[in-house]
Every structure is written in structure tokens, then in C-alpha cells.
Amino acid sequence: MQELAAVKLEVKKSRFYAHLYAIDSPDDLAGILALHRERYRKAAHHCTALRFGAPSGTVELSRNDGEVGTPGRALLAVLDKHALDRHALVVSRIFGGIKLGPGGVTRAFRDAGEGAVSSGE
Questions:
Q1: Torsion angle of C-alpha atoms 66, 71, 72, 74, degrees rounded to 10
Q2: What is the mean pLDDT of residues 20-35?
Q3: H-helix or E-strand containing 78?
Q4: Rounded to the nearest 5°, which phi and psi values hold at 39?
Q5: Which part of the chain is the Impact N-terminal domain (predicted)?
Q6: In the prediction, which pLDDT does 107 show?
Q7: Most buried by CB count within 10 Å: which residue of 29, 35, 75, 92?
Q8: What total of structural domains would you count in the chain?
Q9: What pLDDT sits at residue 1?
Q10: Closest CA to 86 of 22, 15, 1, 37
Q11: In what order do the strands lie in the sheet with 87-94?
């Protein structure tokens, strides 16, 4: 695994830390999540998306990690939109005290993911 980009986005006092990784296998995701849980200890949620093309077909995974809305699916859509294969996108959120609602949370995660992809290209 190799980190390609990292960005920070702040929305209504919540901080979103997005990281884009090039991966060698879908199994790399466990190590990436362990790293994020250590790096962002105050984060309640670490939403993820992964796309990995293989001869047997493309593996696509997303995880909301208990967050409201569908941030994992939004991150997967970012990877798909940019045709990123063999990549993982992880966004950790540190809650700032203001609820964003399901739509606002999903948009914030998507925007943070787009920022990481844009700076990694």
C-alpha cells in the first residue's frame, strides 16, 4: 500500500481527513484502517471505499462505519467516477458538535474524498 494523497475538510466544525491509497490487494484495507484508528483516535467514524480490479472481476467494497447517510457508497462513487482501480479511499471524521444530517454527512464525505483524489492525480 502507498498513500497517494491526504486532505482535510472542515464542515460546520466537523473535521474530515481523507486519504487516497494505491493498494496491492483488498486485504490491505485492514492495515489502512488500523493506521487511521491510531492516527485519528478522536474520530468516531472511519468510512471506506475500495475498488480492486482482478482477472476474476472487480472487487468493490464500501463501509459506513456507523455513520448516518451513505458515505461509504459516496466514496465508492468517487473511485468509480475517476476510474480508480486498485485504490482505497478512507475518510475519518472528528465530530464538531453540529449535526449535519444524512445528506450533509454524505456530501461532506464525498467532497473530502473528491479533494483527496484531485490532489492525488
A1: 170
A2: 92
A3: helix 71-81
A4: -70, -40
A5: 12-115
A6: 95
A7: 75
A8: 1
A9: 83
A10: 22
A11: 2-11, 14-22, 87-94, 45-54, 57-63
Average pLDDT over residues 63-73: 92
Q: Which of 44, 117, 52 is nearest to 62 (CA)?
A: 52
Confidence at residue 121, expressed as pLDDT on a 0 to 100 scale: 66
Distances (CA, A) of 5 to 64, 73, 81, 91, 121: 21, 20, 17, 12, 9
For residue 21, pLDDT beyond 90: yes
Predicted structure pTM score: 0.91
Pairing state between β 87-94 and 2-11: unpaired
- Relative to beta strand 14-22, strand 2-11 is antiparallel
Instruction: For residue 99, give the amino acid letter.
Output: K
For residue range 78-107, list pLDDT tens digits in order: 999 998 989 999 999 999 989 999 999 999
Domain that holds residue 33: 2-120
Could you give the CA distance from residue 45 to residue 49 in angstroms, rounded to a whole number?
A: 13
Return d(Cα 103, Cα 46) in angstroms, integer: 17
61 vs 57, residue with greater confidence? 61
Identify the residue whose cell numbers are 484495507.
Answer: 29
